[in-house]
Write a structure and sequence with these properties.
The protein is 37% helix and 21% strand. The mean pLDDT is 94. The chain is of the alpha/beta class. The protein has a single domain, classed as Rossmann fold (3-Layer(aba) Sandwich), CATH 3.40.50.850.
């Protein structure tokens, strides 16, 4: 069975810049999973520091209003990996999931770490590159011309163990096949 992970779609991240295209791509994939009655699991990053935008009581740590209505299952995490010290593995086992689709935010951290951790746990993993986003850019890493999302997607693709698609490729490969 397939499941969709929607990682860190929280106000603290989404409101940092224009992520409308990423949100649209994520929502399109969510709708496909909903239509096929497949699990959608939202991951929410939380921190213990009251000054952090990810502090549990902070409104900025809440799931973003654009997608919150789809959050039937929410797993809370404290590290970049959605698996580390969470009940995500148990939930996936209960649901009979063997194939995870990765979407969400902080491409080079939470999405990438979760994709690799999922592979290490034996899941088939599909990373939807343009259904991820990051607040960071070439200036953050002092690497002129760096496209973080493309870089992470290329690294994961070259690993040959994690499938990397864009939203349009997802539609062609998975959406049409599940409705046939």
């Amino acid at each position: 069975m397939r499941a969709l992970l929607v990682i860190d779609v929280q106000h603290a991240i989404v409101e940092c810049k224009d992520f409308q295209q990423e949100l649209n791509n994520i929502e399109s994939i969510i709708r496909d999973f909903k239509e096929n009655e497949e699990p959608i699991i939202f991951i929410r990053h939380l921190e213990g520091d009251e000054k952090s935008p990810f502090y549990r009581e902070s409104p900025s740590s809440e799931l973003h209003h654009a997608l919150k209505k789809y959050a039937d299952i929410v797993i809370e995490k404290k590290t970049p990996s959605s698996f580390f010290q969470t009940n995500l593995s148990e939930k996936l086992d209960q649901l009979g999931v063997n194939h995870l689709f990765i979407t969400g935010f902080e491409t080079e951290f939470c999405c990438q770490f979760t994709a690799i951790a999922a592979y290490d746990r034996g899941y088939r993993v599909t990373f939807i590159e343009d259904a991820t986003g990051t607040v960071n850019d070439e200036a953050t890493y002092e690497m002129k011309g760096l496209d973080i999302r493309d870089f992470v997607g290329t690294v994961l693709h070259w690993s040959t163990v994690i499938e990397v698609l864009d939203q349009e490729e997802y539609v062609g490969k998975y959406q049409s096949s599940t409705k046939a």
